[in-house]
Specification:
Blueprint (H helix, E strand, L loop, with lengths): L4 H14 L5 E7 L2 E8 L6 E5 L10 H7 L4 E5 L9 E2 L7 H15 L4 E6 L1 H12 L4 E7 L10 H12 L3 H12 L6 H9 L16 H5 L5 E6 L7 H11 L3 E6 L13 H14 L2
Parallel strand pairs: 3-4, 3-6, 6-7, 7-8, 8-9
Antiparallel strand pairs: 1-2, 2-4, 2-5
Length: 284
């Protein structure tokens, strides 16, 4: 697998110019390859593991690292097989079980027997599945505009995304993000990275049905769900209603004006996200 120098340069630029001083980088061996983790915060603070949406890379969490890193040891993870600095091994990630086994290995490598998990979009889908797989390892769970967890995609979103998925390139990626965010001014360094990732030789993401309702009803993990009020990926009201019906310990908040792809990096959305997440993580 050959990764372009432009992608690596863009990745390193976001880390160098957006992430707070004191950020460290770790390469963790797992059964599925080497996983890159970017970490910030006090070494003895409770661990918080961040899982980005597809194509966003771990660098997208710079605002959360700076804010939540005051009270937690924040670990932002590059998904194996997705754009980033993780390197896929000979054993591919093909199933939900592979994903949960991979994340178990990441937590083991971090020395985190128990951690808070926060995921956005596809990363939220992974985080929720891991909480169902190993609830004893998840102290608290934060799901940011989670996809395929409580409701399906809007058909219009899928139609817009299809050309980008079938023939990815920087122009299509930029146009899609501009459409979904309503032309929001995304961080230029991160946007360059996201567009450069269109040429990344990534594997097909693991997909599957939504978690079973009975499994969700039995999940005894405190959960915060933050939804994008102006997002186009799904109906936030439908997601909120399903989550309230299925998850016994969930609280759901819809952030007005936020879109799916302005989470978690665009102000003022990021500030509201950080405030809500910090209050949730530190509450007794």
């Amino acid at each position: 697998m050959t990764v372009s120098t432009s992608f690596l340069a863009a990745y390193d630029e976001v880390l160098a110019t957006r992430w707070p001083a004191g950020t460290t980088h770790t390469e963790l061996p797992t059964p599925y390859g080497t996983t890159r983790v970017n970490s910030h915060g006090p070494g003895d603070a409770p661990p918080l593991v961040l899982l980005a949406g597809g194509g966003a890379t771990s660098t997208v969490w710079y605002a959360q690292a700076a804010h939540l890193g005051r009270t937690h040891r924040v670990h932002a993870v590059d998904l194996v097989g997705d754009p980033g600095r993780s390197v896929a091994g000979e054993r591919p990630v093909r199933t939900v079980r592979d994903l949960t086994t991979w994340l178990d290995a990441v937590l083991d490598g971090l020395g985190a027997d128990r951690a808070a998990l926060c995921g956005h979009s596809y990363g939220a889908w992974i985080a929720l599945h891991h909480a169902l797989h190993a609830p004893h390892r998840v102290r608290k769970l934060i799901l940011l505009d989670p996809t395929q967890c409580f409701a399906g995609f809007r058909p219009g979103y899928l139609l817009r995304a299809l050309p980008m998925l079938l023939r990815p390139d920087a122009r299509r990626t930029r146009a899609f993000l501009e459409w979904e965010t309503g032309g929001a001014a995304l961080d230029p360094a991160w946007l360059r990275l996201c567009c450069a990732g269109a040429d990344f030789p990534s594997a097909r993401p693991v997909t599957g049905p939504r978690p079973a309702p009975d499994a969700l009803r039995g999940l005894d993990v405190p959960t915060l769900i933050l939804l994008a009020g102006s997002g186009r990926v799904h109906d936030p009201a439908r997601v909120a209603a399903a989550a309230a019906r299925l998850l016994p310990r969930a609280q759901t908040v819809t952030i007005p004006g936020a879109t799916h792809h302005t989470l978690p990096l665009h102000e003022p959305t990021a500030a509201e996200l950080n405030r809500r997440a910090a209050d949730f993580l530190t509450a007794r």
